[in-house]
Amino acid sequence: MRTTNLYAPTLREVPAEAEVKSHQLMLRAGMIRKAAGGLYTYMPLAWRTIKKIEAIIRDEMDKAGGQEISMPIVQPAEIWQESGRWSVYGDEMWRVKDRHGRGFCLGPTHEEMVTTLIRDEVRSYKQLPLSLYQIQNKYRDERRPRFGLMRSREFIMKDMYSFDKDVEGMNVSYKKMYDAYTNVFNRCGLEFRPVEADNGAIGGGHSHEFTVLAEAGESNIAYCSECDYAASDEKAELKVIASAEEEMKELEKVSTPDAHTIEKVAEYLNLPLDKTIKAVAFQTDTNELVLAFVRGDHEVNDVKVINLIEGAIELRMADEEAITAAGGVAGFMSPIGIKEGTKIVVDATVMGMYNACAGANEKDFHFINVNPKRDFKDVIVADIRMIKEGDACPHCGAPVKMTRGIEAGQVFTLGTKYSESLHATFLDENGKEKPLQMGCYGIGVGRTMAAAVEQNNDADGIIWPRSIAPYEAIVVPVNAKNEDQMAVAEEIYQGLLAQGVDAIIDDRKERAGVKFKDADLIGYPMRITVSPKALEEGSVEVKIRRSGEVKMVEKANAISEIVEILKNL
Ligand code: ATP
Ligand code: MG
User: Fold this and answer.
1) What is the pTM of this model?
2) I want to staple 331 with a disulfide (CB 3.0 to 4.6 A). Which of 18, 260, 477, 562 is the partner?
3) 149 Cα nearest atom in ligand 1
4) Which tens digit of pLDDT belongs to each residue from 101-138?
């Protein structure tokens, strides 16, 4: 490629609409352009990187036994109605109608499609295991599309689905994908962690998220300072914190005027926060009230709460009326005195507290000497709190650390969730009909590219890992009008191409400074500069983008030396 032919309009200014580095830099490097909120065009340079990431993914999926297919993006409503997800998927699903008024959606994911594809034709255990995958656009009408390709409404996803005859088989398929994902992200040159994750609306068994470590990430992950435990904060399990045993005192109502927050209450009563119990009132998508209680210094993990409530998909803060109807008073709530039948979930640590302070369900009053074991009736007890820095690792007990990351991929075991609702069965060795055991595995291709930029940049621009760089090396004649320089640059460029190096030559008749700035911004891993001074000495200059290291290479054996340096990048 010659830059005189390349469509990559670079920008010197930081675009105002872009909040995070990857979004800013890809706009500035002329790699992406916005069409509308969450909808982007991948320009030539970005498309090359996308193709390289896809090639790595394909290679690993094929090695793991996957077969590539391509299913329609437009999916009939019927299969989603059959699985039960048409009504539960919510506003994120991009719904469309055809000219006859029939319902369709633009696929946000393909469990229904792939399961109905194979259900009539996979009939025997002899056809298993089977893994099918595709790489295509997905559509999710995100509530807040943002950060460019990181959270867009149309995005490229690799989605794979595995079918096995039994749970052991499913776990083998899962492990294969876990390993394949590890290879993919290693080959893309990313620093990442597989973290234990929540299954979310997709349902099923266990799951890991492959999280690229980066400050701009939307995922919070907890990892152990001692062992290799890592989990998303939504998922991270917590041990019960035991309270020192005390004699249970008699419940007492005390006045706490205007103390609406637990901090104010603790201050007013001169109590440490870990002697208080705080409430969060939620309502489910079906308007059921759910009251959650954690220790005053802890936070409620709403994902853990959702998982306790059968059929709930989303939680929102409860309306005042719903709270009042259940006998509660916002800001002064506890399980004591709440109407029977109200769903109340209490964190397991709270149940072990003695003589604590909690709301009295009366404006401006709290109870002291609350002993949950004695005073809380008909409550669901579970781990519902959010992990925080310093909490004990559930595996070894050492303190955990928190870091931010970008979820670039996720693997799930699904069990029979979809095969049962969609009647995908097979006959086992004994001729017995059984539902297929499934797994599903996604990688966001555009998000992986954005994550790579997020993790690899400096003040001058992007620093691509070589394996996914749009071009591996750029050859820059300082003065393209000078025939000698151009001839040497051309020779090196052709020589690199002949060696299979993905090279580009900057043949623009621009000032050297402009060319260097663009090369740094776009982030080619290596720049080879042909300057008059070096030529006089019979050499060319090789600069490594990441380290800034400069090396003079003899012109006579430039190609082999450059190829060698590239190999080690
Ligand atoms: P998130 O929690 O970030 O919304 P998700 O868990 O819903 O993502 P999955 O259903 O697991 O996403 O999809 C598989 C992969 O697709 C994700 O790991 C991510 O890399 C990518 N992905 C999901 N949503 C988007 C999006 N809106 N824009 C870009 N990539 C996305
Ligand atoms: Mg996910």
Assistant:
1) 0.86
2) 260
3) 29
4) 999 999 999 999 999 999 999 999 999 999 999 999 99
**Domain count for the chain:** 3
pLDDT in tens, 395-421: 899 999 999 999 999 999 999 999 999
Q: From ligand 2's centre to the CA of 51, what distance in Å?
A: 22
End-to-end alpha carbon distance in the chain: 21
Domain annotation covers residue 533 = yes
Calculate how far, in angstroms, residue 42's C-alpha sits from the geometric centre of ligand 2: 23
CB-CB neighbours of 204 under 10 Å: 19
Q: Which tokens in the block code for residue 46?
A: 């970005």
Same domain, 71 and 180: yes
Whether residue 433 sits in one domain with residue 366? no
- Give the up-direction half-sphere exposure of residue 15: CA atoms within 13 A in the CB hemisphere: 21
SS3 341: coil
Average the pLDDT over each of 193-197, 200-204, 255-259, 474-478 and give the range with the smallest value.
Answer: 200-204
**Cβ of residue 408 lying under 6 Å from some atom of ligand 1:** yes
**12, part of any domain:** no
Cβ–ligand 1 contact at 140 (below 6 Å) = yes
For residues 180 and 268, membership in a common domain is answered with: no
∠ CA 538-541-545, nearest 5°, is 170
Segments forming the whole domain that contains residue 261: 252-382
Q: Tokens for 128, please give them.
A: 């298993």
Whether residue 341 sits in one domain with residue 194 = no
User: Domain with 498 in it: what CATH number?
Assistant: 3.40.50.800
Statement to judge: residues 273 and 227 lie in one domain: no
